[in-house]
Structures are given as structure tokens and as C-alpha cells.
Amino acid sequence: MKKLLRIAFVSLLALAAPSLAQAACADLAYKQFDFWLGDWNVATAEGKLVGRDHVEKAYGGCVMQEHWTSVDGGTGGSFSLYDASRKLWHQTWVDSTGTLVVLEGNLKEGRMVLSGEITTPEGKRQQDRMSWTPQGGKIRQLWETSSDGGKTWVTIFDVYYSKG
To answer: Of 61, 101, 108, 158, which has the fewest Cβ atoms less than 10 A away?
Structure first.
């Protein structure tokens, strides 16, 4: 009898798992970054194409998964998710050059702003700050770095996403 109850419980759990996953990420906070979903052509302000990006929901709609391909053939991707326990967004980026960028932050005044800190190959601390700002059907992504603790910032990537 115990074995039969155990089998019934496991079967019910398996049937309920998809709805539990959807319910776990149903809060509106998980949708704050949805403006980034889709297939995108990514270009400079002058219109020069620098790559293509595909951003989709994954893992029961709880995670945003990015698939980047640059025009020179480089690839990379990120996982972004809302961490409800800390009430912030987390993103981990990796690419074909071995780059790892870990960022955290929140939606601020209609734009997603994530930041983090890395140690450069020279052993120096560097702050990274990225923002995604919807602008009339496009998205501006701005990546800035600071090597003086955030007193000054240098732009290293400033691009516009348009639907591909």
C-alpha cells in the first residue's frame, strides 16, 4: 500500500510540475525585461550592423536566454533571471573569447540597469554597467566601464537593437 501511495504521489507531482513552474515565475517582476525578447539586428548609432541577437524565455518562462552572434563570427550568450529572494535581476554572460561577465540590478525609470565588478587580466578591479532602454520599437544597449570606483565611466559598447 505504501508503495502504491508513493507511486501515486510521484505521478501527481510530475503532472503538477509544469503549473508549479509557471506559478513560481508568474509575478510581474519576472516580466520587467520582456521588452528584450525577440530576434534582433544590432547596429551602431550610425547604422553599422555589429551582430544579431535572439532572446527567448526558457526553463518554464523563468529565465531569459540570449544567443548572440557578431558579424565577425564571435558567439556568446547570457542567462538573465529575476531573483525574487533578493528582489533584483541577475545576468551571467559568457562568450567564445572566454569572457565572463556577472551583473545584477533592477529596472529603473523604464530601463534595465545591471552592474558588476571584474578583475582584469592585469589584476585591476573594473566596474561594468550595462543598460537596456526601450526607445520606440528599438532598444539601446549601453555598456560602460569604470576603473576608478565609479567616479568616471567609459563607453565600450553603444548599440541599438531593431527587430530582425
So the answer is: 108
